[in-house]
Every structure is written in structure tokens, then in C-alpha cells.
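User: Predict the full complex structure for these chains.
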Amino acid sequence: MLAVDGVDLEILPGEVHVVAGENGAGKSTLMKLLSQVERPSGGEVEVSGEPVEFHGPGHAQSLGVAMVYQEFALAPHLSVAENLFLGREPGRAGFINRRSEGEEAGNLLRRVGLDVNPARLVSGLTVAEQQRVEIAKALAIDAKVVIMDEPTATLAEKEIEGLFDVIRDLTSRGIAILYISHRLDEIFRIADRVTVMRDGKIVDTLLVNELDEDKLVRLMVGREVANLYPKPEVEIGDALLRVSGVSRGKKLMDCSFEVRAGEILGFAGLVGAGRTELARAVFGADRKDSGTVELDGRTLKIKQPQDAINAGIGYLTEDRKGQGLALQLGVDQNITLASLPMSFGFINLAEERRTARQRRDELNIRTPSIRRRVQVLSGGNQQKVVVARWLETKARVMFFDEPARGIDVGAKAEMFGLIGELAKEGRGIVLISSYLPELLNMCDRILVMNEGKVAGVIGREEFSEERIIALATAGMEEIA
Amino acid sequence: MTDTGATEERGGLGAALRERFSDAVSQLAAAGALIVVFVFLSIASPAFLTADNLFNIGSQTAVVAVIAIGMTLVIITAGIDLSVGSVAAFAGVMGVMMIVDFGFPVPLALLGGTLVGAACGLVNGFLVSTAGLNPFIATLGMLSVARGLVYIFSDAQAIFGTPDSFRLLGQGVIAGGIPIPLIVTLAIAIVGFIILSRTKLGRYAYAIGSNLEAARLSGIPVRRYLTLVYVISGALAGFGGMIAASRVNSGQPNFGVGLELDVIAAAVIGGASLFGGQGTVIGTLIGAFLIALIRNGSVLLGVDIFYQQVIIGVVIWIAVFWDQYRRRRLASSSE
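Assistant: Here is the predicted structure of the two-chain assembly.
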């Protein structure tokens, strides 16, 4: 099977050309072919009308095709300037001319709106700043086409706006941007034209004003998605989890909230506002300086995750691969990781398999075998494996930290459907998300965090994006 | 939609089978190499396929194999234990001193030596799991500390004077010619196999090596299990030291210099990954015997001892390269 099959794509100077599609649609593979990281088995690439031969990434760069990767290709222990000129250091006879390197770097950084000293180490920069350095690197080689692979995946809302300003500035100078994304909101904000890929083929290329959200989803998924956010009607019960006065250094200050049975409580706020920190402190993943956690009116002593788990609290982390899954272990072993079935001091393998099969069927985890390494599953199915693990612990309160990150539109609808079901069964759910439509559609109440404090809690009847953003940004000065 | 689902299922099933067999195949390959070397030596050297020689190999391998089983456990957690050679010497000398200087009965001394090793492992485990030292550094320190201690306690002199019964562990025979050290090794291997496949300790070791943070957030008491893993490695190093002491019927303070390299090589040849999450007892046993055969064969064929080192180094390269190649292919075929 081909990852990318007979694709024709034309990119015009000065346009933002979005390549949209679900995970596995072939977007990233296509980009690797264009930037000559991988060799195509057929077809040709022309730059400015000239056919291009395949010689590897360095060759692509010399032709003016630069790539900004999802995970940056920067050397963290080198300075910004050193990174910008890595492999092309100015100077002679093997000695580097540091002064001209610094000046040149300063110019490039200004063009991408980044105000940092070029002598600083890359490891000390924020993710957003590192991304700007990557873009500056593209400018350093005089790129005509800059390929960006899901550049907003790790950025906060404000940083996204800054990135879009830089993109608009680049296109006004005639540089073409090839922008890979599956986030609907930003496609409509930044694209001039959209090419939709599915199963390694191009479905269509359209001007962005010929599209609306429904049509785009239909093209990406290849069928109608009835409802992205299926929220069932739930009778909300009594308070299940009550958290009061949780503080942790400057990250969390006197945070209190409660979750009721059957309720979905949203955590909104900017990146760094303390949403994940609050969830981790309640769960015992991080130490807390003060504060109490009650479940069913009983005060819990939570010092480490296993205390929270034993009490009936679960936490699905935002970083699935980094903190959620043991990638080399099987689907079954990942599902039972927090609740190994034991008999006489030994793991009951038959019981483990039975449990895993049951959860696989129940959550519709698409894997040919439950003993399959979880590494090779798609993002959506991996996420379901983690959910299954928490269901096995009989968690009554579940924290979902960015559960839809990096999974397909179809899988996303399934994930939110599942969260709705869990609430309906009487569990208390906390949903953390940076994408407001998810919170607005799924939650009964939304708690907004701002610089480590709870800035306010809004009931469903009063939901509005404006109010949430106002609470989330109140008291902050404008950052460039 | 259902159609593509079904084909995926089929394609996926093939990949799943390949994956399930992949570890077995890795061991088969090492086992294949073992058989090839065995057959080659049987033909090339008349002295090879004799009871005496096989007995020798069996009992020589015991020390490396026993310690390598503990090492496998450590490597599965993405750790390393560089101190096993020094710890084996320290434990061996202490065990012999218990008999000679304090009049311990032999079985108690065996336990005592093992516990000395376990104590060293406990220090390693504490440094890794709680003080947060890198395993390489923590056990590098212990490598030096244990070697220093054994010289201090023994005055850098070999210790003699053990009773004949002490020889049994390293030199004894049962059932008409099967070396006791080989039996002991197999017994420990069986226990190790059960630990890895059927107990919390084994499962959690794989989980910790695969993703420490995920393990912690799943409620696994990571520190406790990580410490336990190093204690076991130390205990087996200590017991291995007792086997070695029994083989020469004395405590040798300079035993086991560089032994950690053979031990790590055995685990790695057998498919353990230094990145953690992978490794099996069977693979490690095969690795240990392969190294022993190469050593033994080199001697029989009159190959210079320095060339032995070169050969073993090359075998490590080939084994690890082949293992990685196979895994890469597996990963790309299942995308």
C-alpha cells in the first residue's frame, strides 16, 4: 500500500496552502517527499518551473524548500545564532566569524518577530520561541516555500495569533507557505487554498471561501459526521469530588472546585494558567503545599498517584505517548497496568486477557489482537486504551486532559461520546481543553483559570466564548 | 467502511503475528548462532564434544548467566548495573571469610554472601530510585566502592581454608555428571522467567522501562520496584560471586574485573534493549552460553586470547544491529 498515491499539488507564490486531512491521510508523508527526507517511488517535483532531482534534505533546502517540523530539529545546547547557521557557519578556514553570525542572526530574528538575544541557548526558549527560530532558519536559507507540519499543535492561543502574523508577513513577501493541519478553526483563519487528503490521495483543492466547516469535515472524513460533541441528557447528582484551597508554589493559588455526579466540568484557560497543574495536584502526580480533596464527603490523603487511584480518581494525561502509554507493552498489558488481576501472588493472565477483550469490544478499540504492541495503534485507539485502563480502576471521578489532542475528527466524536456516556453512568468528569468549542459543547459548567487561580466558574446557560476569554486573560498585559 | 475495516483487520493480524513471533525469532536467531557455533566446534575440535569440556562450559557459564539474569531485570527498567563484577568479588570474599574466620556453616555463608551482594544492590537502588542518580553513575560508584572494600577487608590477599563441602556449589556433580552450578543456573533462570512473565515485579519492570512516568501515573510504586530490581541484581551478583569462590575454593579479591562487560553482553545479545522495556531470561541465557562457547572454542582451537575479545565484540555488534534492523522493519511494516 502506498502512503501517498498519485498526488498532484501546485503551490503558488505568496499563498498559504493548507493540506488538511485526518491522521494517516498521508499529509506528513507528502511533506517528507517534498522536503526530500524520503524518496518518492514515482512522479516529479518542480520548483519555479524547473524539474528537481532527488538528492536529500540539503538539496531541497538549496532549492528553497524548507521544513518546520512538529518536533523541532534544533540543537538545544547551542545558541540561537549557532542553530540558525548550523552547517553553514560564516567564516573561513574552519574558524567561525562570531560577530557576523550574531548580526545576521539578529536580522533574521527581527523578521520573524522574535526579540531574543541570538547568543541565548535554545534550551532556554519557550516552545513558541523555538518555533520562530525554526522559521528564521528557513529564512536564512532564502526559502521560497516553507512547509509547516501542524505548527500550532504545541502553541497557546496568543502564540498562535503571533505565528499567523509572521505567516502573513512572509506571504506578503512572496513566500509560499504549505501548512499541514487538521484543526478546523485555524484552517479558516489562515488558509488561502485548502487541499484535502484522504487515504493517501487528494480529494479536492478548493479556495477557502468555497468551504464551510461541515463541507470540510465531510471531505476529510469521507462521510457525514452527525455530531462532533454528542452530549447526553444527564440528571446531575450530588457533589462527588470537592477540592478546596489547593496551592502549589506560584503555579496554583488557593484553588477550589467541586464536581457532581454525572457532571462534566470544564477547565478553561491559557496554556500555563494552571489547569493541568491543578489536575495533577489533585491526583497526587505533583506535590501540593496545602489544600484538601474530598470524595463523597470523605477527606482523602493523597500523596502519590496510587492514593488517588485507590480512592477512585483517574487522570488521563495530555501527553499520551510521554506519560500515558507504555508503548512497548501490549494493548492488554496497558489496559491492566493500574489494576493487575492477581491470584495467589501471580498475574492471572487469563483474566487479564478476558478483561482486555471486554474493554476492546466495549470501547470499540480497533486492534487486530489485544496482545498487539500499543505503539502501532492509531492515536484515537491509543487514547481509548488509556481510557480503558482508568475504567478498570473503577474510577468515579475522571480527569481528561486534552483527550482529543492529535486524534482524528471521527475518533474525536467517539471520544466525546464516550466521555458523555461516562458522565451518564454517574461519574464526575473534569474536561481540560484549549479548544473552546469542545468545552462549550460538552460541559455543564466551565471553570476558568488565570495565572494559577480560579478566575471564575460559569454555568451552561451563561456560556460564551467572550466571557471565558475575558476571565482567562483578565489582568494580563498584552504580550507580543 | 466495513470493507476497509476488514482488510485492515487481516493486514493487522499478519503484523500482529509477526510481532508476537519477533521476540521469539530474535531468540531463535541467537539460538541459531549458538547451534552453529556448537556444531562448528564439534567438527573443528575433537576435544570439544567431551564430557569434561561440556562440564567445564556448563559450570563456567554459571557465574555469568546467574548474574546476567539479574542484569536483564535491571536493563528492562532502562537501567544498568556496572558494579556486578566488584560486588561478586566482595560478596565472594566476605562469604569465604564467614566460613574461615567466623566458622559459619557453608549454607549460611552462601546466604551471607548473597546478602552482602543484596546490600550493595540496595545502595544502588536507593541512589537510582530515590537520590535520582543516573544508573550508570550510581553503579559506577559502587563498582569502585565494592572493589575498594574487598581489598580493605581482605588486605588484598586471597583467602583459603574452606572445607571440601564448599566445593559442591561450583564444582559438584549430581545424577551422574550434571554440574551442580548448571542446575542452580537453570533453577534461577526458571524463577527469573516466572518473575518476568507472571508477577507484578516483572510486569512493572517492563512498564517502568517502557515509560516511567506512565507507570508512576498508573499508581505503580516506582521507587520501591526500582530499588527491588537493583537489590535482586546485587543479590544474584553476590550469589554468582559465591559460585566463583566455590570453583576455586577460595575468596579472590581481584575476581571479576571486567565481568560486568560479559554480563551486559549476554543480556544484550539475548535481545535486551538498553533503552528499556525489552529483554527475556531465555535470550540472556542463550547470550551467556554463546559467549562461553566462543571463549571455550577459542581456547580449544588455539586462538589467541586477545582475538577472543575481538570476536566477542563483533558478535555484540552483529546481535544488536540485527535486532534493531528487525525492529525497524517491524515498525515500518505495521504503519
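Confidence is low (pLDDT under 50) at residues 1-13 of chain B.
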